[in-house]
Design brief:
- The protein is mostly helical.
- The chain has a single domain, classed as Up-down Bundle (Growth Hormone, Chain: A), CATH 1.20.1250.
- It is 75% helix and 1% strand.
- The chain has a two-stranded antiparallel ribbon.
- Helix 10 packs antiparallel against helix 17.
- The longest helix has 30 residues.
- It comes from Linderina pennispora.
- One of its GO terms (molecular function) is transmembrane transporter activity.
- Keywords: Membrane, Transmembrane, Transmembrane helix.
């Protein structure tokens, strides 16, 4: 039977202490049989680190796409509109998240490891096929569509593993896991830039494909789930859609993803407009990803102390305050480096916190399914946001500046913060103690 969600689910979850039986939930090592392991046990760090390493390859491709974007815009496809080229990077992230509504449900139904291995194969094939592409539409189908779908199979179990293994340290564990995407962005960015300059695009893509196959193939073996999935008749967890909490998380994710990727995609082009080089653009992405690695771990740690929703509210509003003046008023590379460092540390908090919110307010045995459903909206946000930004850059900024693009991005991040604030009031209203300054 599907899990029934009720309006007092939250109060029960947050207000009552865990029993000894709950703390020692049965864990499943997929094919190895059941093992009794408690939350916050040392064993939970094994699958968490495996997720961290896989995130390097899942999100590393999208976080470092700015290198390919700058290369395509300024070297290989100079006459091609930015809107057209933006389809490649946009589809990587939008399909990775959007297809999660299917892959998340499959992960709960057929198991975490089989789902992850499907993703490994698809991502590898995407890289290899892209290495033989010589037209933009071919890159859109391979580096964009096929890789995005493959990444969705990898991300489905990855999102659900750290939160289910931890309770007291849930935020920091998920922050460490998600920081893998930033670490991946660091070395992906440096390695991709070096390979493009010395080996060309074809061999850069082939080498990334080989590395993805080898590393994720090994890490998938450590994808253990702590809570066994219940037998299910329905593929999707439709009962989740009856709760306001689900819709507020989904709208928040949509708005944030509409605005978030603008800096990643266009910081290299901004550097070029200010007299910088391709290497300067790559260096800025390195700083951005380094800041993200620190910020995601710190956000998880702070969220465990002050509450995940509180942390997310602070992060969203701080992002807007940082982004608009530093990017709009930049007249040299110095402010751009400051922007990337601060934006990296503060803005990606939602990537660390959203899985924690789902694991806190929804049952763990359907976590991958509910996460996939919320990520469908996030994928729509990526698709509509990135394509809109490309259009604004071409039509209103005339490819000579970024003022309108920046305003568009910042306003949606601001709206995301307002929605999170609404989520906070919604949660507090249902708690026995309705104190405004409490931890949520």
């Amino acid at each position: 039977m599907p899990v029934q969600y009720t309006e007092n689910h939250l109060e029960k979850h947050l207000s009552r202490p865990q029993s000894d039986e709950e703390k020692t939930d049965v864990s499943v090592a997929e094919d190895d049989g059941p093992k009794v392991r408690p939350q916050d046990c040392a064993f939970g760090w094994i699958p968490t680190i495996a997720v961290c390493i896989n995130y390097m390859f899942i999100f590393g491709a999208s976080n470092s796409y700015g290198v390919f974007s700058t290369y395509y815009l300024t070297e290989r496809f100079v006459g091609t509109p930015a809107t057209t080229l933006s389809w490649i990077g946009t589809l990587i992230t939008s399909l990775m998240l959007g297809c999660n509504i299917i892959t998340g449900a499959l992960a709960d139904k057929i198991g975490y490891r089989p789902t992850a291995y499907i993703g490994t194969v698809l991502c590898t094939v995407a890289y290899i096929l892209a290495s033989f592409a010589n037209q933009v539409w071919q890159l859109i189908l391979t580096q964009g569509v096929l890789f995005g779908i493959g990444a969705s199979f990898l991300i489905a179990p990855s999102l659900s593993i750290p939160p289910q293994w931890f309770n007291k340290y849930r935020g920091v564990a998920n922050g460490i896991a998600v920081a893998g995407s930033s670490f991946g962005g660091l070395w992906f960015t440096a390695a991709t830039q070096a390979m493009l300059e010395n080996l060309g695009a074809a061999w850069a893509l082939r080498i990334l494909g080989i590395l993805t196959f080898a590393i994720t193939g090994i890490m998938n073996m450590f994808y253990y789930r702590r809570v066994p999935a219940k037998p299910r008749k329905n593929l999707f967890e439709w009962n989740a859609t009856k709760r306001m909490t689900f819709w507020l998380i989904s709208i928040e994710a949509t708005a944030m993803y509409i605005g978030y990727w603008a800096l990643t995609f266009y910081i290299g082009s901004t550097a070029k407009l200010l007299g910088g080089t391709l290497q300067d653009g790559s260096n800025l992405l390195l700083v951005l990803n380094a800041g993200s690695a620190v910020g995601r771990i710190a956000a998880g740690y702070i969220a465990d102390k002050i509450g995940s929703i509180n942390m997310l509210v602070i992060s969203d509003f701080a992002t807007v305050i940082i982004q608009m003046p530093l990017w709009m008023k930049a007249n040299s590379l110095g402010p751009l480096y400051a922007l990337c460092a601060l934006y990296g540390m503060i803005s990606p908090t939602f990537i660390s916190i959203n899985p924690v919110l789902v694991s806190t307010y929804f049952d763990q045995d359907v976590m991958a399914s509910v996460m996939g459903m919320t990520n469908l909206f996030a994928g729509i946000g990526v698709l509509s946001g990135n394509l809109s930004q490309g259009r604004i850059f071409d039509l209103y900024d005339k490819r000579q500046g970024f003022t309108n693009t920046i305003i568009f991005s910042a306003m949606f991040i601001l709206f995301s913060g307002i929605v999170v604030l609404g989520l906070r009031f919604h949660i507090i209203r249902k708690l026995p103690s309705k104190r405004f300054l409490q931890k949520v």
